[in-house]
Amino acid sequence: MAQQPAIQYFRPYDQRGINVFETTKEDTVEYDGFKLRIGAGFTQGYQKLKHKNGIDPTGLYEMGGGFPLAQANFNIDVQLYDGVALNLVSYMSSHHHNEFWVKGGYLQVDKVTFLNSEFMNNLWKNLTLKVGHMEINYGDAHFRRSDGGHTLWNPWIENNIMDAFTTEIGAELYWKKDGIIAMIAMTDGEIQGNVAAPSQPAGAKRKPAIYGKLGYDKQLQDNLRVRLTGSFYSTKSSVNNTIFGGDRTGSNYQFVMDNAPVTVTGNYTSGRFNPGFRDNVTTFVINPFIKFSGLEVFGTFEFAKGKNQFENGEGTNPARAAIDDRKADQIAAEALYRFGKNEKFYFGGRYITVNATVAEGVTAANAGIQYDVTIDRLSIGGGWFITRNILLKGEYVNQNYDGFPNTGANNRFFEGNFKGFVIQGAISF
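^ thats the sequence. predicted structure below, dont judge the formating
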């Protein structure tokens, strides 16, 4: 079988892509014409989880051990010109869409020799431009998350409780030099493109999202790497912003804390929390990362605020005027130790806590209610890279819910808890 062609400024989908964040400006691949690279990601899991709440009788789905629907991705990477590449990812099977579904794609420009300008060539030595309908670069946790069938970069089974991930249409401009990373970006602020003026609710408006990142990433010694970044994301108005609910694949804790009856596509966010900032949102996140020999530490300190359209007083004859933003904060800390030849083994632990104000029952005609909740998760796990393309990993998880009422749309989380173990096999190339 022929080897896969080398693509410039490329993050490998296999083990070599672990702890790669933004691509660097190191020009390590010589351009020798058009290249097409085909890749894929596949994940099959087995879970043995149990859940409970304080509702009697409980309406929770009756869970047992079993195999969730396998997920698979299809990746296309194309070298179009010297320093110019295309990335396109599609979901062949996922918990949100069982049918073939396009995630998104982007054009990445690291060289501009096609302009035949020495001035622009020199200017572009430290610049990178990404344009497309793509995964936005807010924070660093999205570089380590599971994405449908591609779970090999994630040492854990599932992503953060408040999963900051979405795809939007826009552009990101980077400046990279001597370990310093600066990025500014603008998108349409929504997961789908739309050329229509919003008609519902009355008063709704579409405005762009602005986001950026500033950070430092340096290999200080042979065995010591330090990275620290801060990111922000903000949009003043949107018809359906999904910064904390843009995943179109699904949770890897299938059906936890879901009431019966359930369906794979209808209950794809199990175990996650979306604060529901659909109209306006401003969020900041700080991500420290340290790798010292085999020890690896990664953190998330996230502070978000926003509200939905009806909390902004939109709609015909609204029940109330615009109110103050609700808040949602998340802290996550994880520590891993990688060992063995080529760090083929690892084990570690992770703790996540979310504190947020929830809005329930808010419509144009109903002011609804608000209440404060806390969700926390403890995970202990490990993995084995059988080859650089094949990972076997497992995790014990225990997640708790506090502050949810025993009535209303979210009563299934009242005194809620789920725990157990999940094992996954992941293949990526």
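The domain at 15-428 is CATH 2.40.160.10 (Porin).
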